[in-house]
Write a sequence for this structure.
């Protein structure tokens, strides 16, 4: 049984085992009512992808600027994200661009780091995952949350190094951490940044 706050949904999520009665889950939620209220009140406000919104890219703030009369792809230019097309498509186009930019940042890093430890990366996918920033499957496929592209570059680099290190060591033992530390810099600072600020990235979009 698990009760957690989902910043992207702006609410709480209760997960029960299949054989657990619903009443037990409701009882847990009632017991944790004060905690739930305080955590929900502390959530940062949602920031929709609209004209004028401020969105970080690699940790640097960018202002969204809608150019309805212009065609073409989204462009990053002088601290602005220039989005063409109709207003109702702005959010989707910006998400698509951020996904592509995340993959553009992640793929070459992952391949280069894997080569340093004599491993090869399988397929690399970028998704909007809520419970983890990255994962490594048993067959060497890597998956990352596209929202990493909003973090400072050292943080993104650490998450890539973390998952690449799993290509060599599946568990989080001493040899794993030693390998991950060799593949990136400022590992502890990056981990601390994610713990402190990671949840806030889900308020965008």
């Amino acid at each position: 049984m698990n009760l957690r706050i989902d910043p992207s949904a702006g609410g709480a999520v209760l997960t029960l085992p299949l054989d657990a009665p619903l009443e037990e889950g409701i009882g847990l939620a009632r017991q944790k009512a004060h905690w739930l209220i305080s955590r929900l009140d502390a959530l940062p406000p949602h920031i929709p992808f609209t004209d004028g919104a401020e969105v970080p890219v690699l940790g640097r703030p960018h202002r969204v600027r809608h150019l309805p009369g212009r065609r073409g792809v989204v462009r990053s230019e002088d601290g602005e994200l220039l989005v063409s097309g109709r207003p109702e498509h702005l959010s989707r186009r910006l998400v698509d661009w951020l996904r592509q930019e995340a993959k553009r940042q992640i793929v070459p890093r992952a391949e280069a780091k894997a080569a340093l430890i004599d491993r090869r990366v399988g397929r690399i996918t970028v998704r909007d995952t809520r419970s983890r920033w990255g994962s490594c499957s048993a067959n060497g496929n890597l998956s990352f949350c596209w929202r990493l592209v909003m973090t400072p570059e050292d943080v993104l680099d650490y998450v890539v190094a973390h998952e690449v290190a799993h290509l060599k060591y599946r568990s989080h033992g001493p040899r794993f951490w030693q390998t991950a530390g060799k593949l990136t810099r400022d590992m502890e600072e990056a981990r601390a940044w994610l713990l402190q600020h990671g949840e806030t990235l889900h308020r965008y979009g």
Remarks:
- The CA atoms of residues 9 and 156 lie 23 Å apart.
- The mean pLDDT is 92.
- The chain has six helices and nine strands.
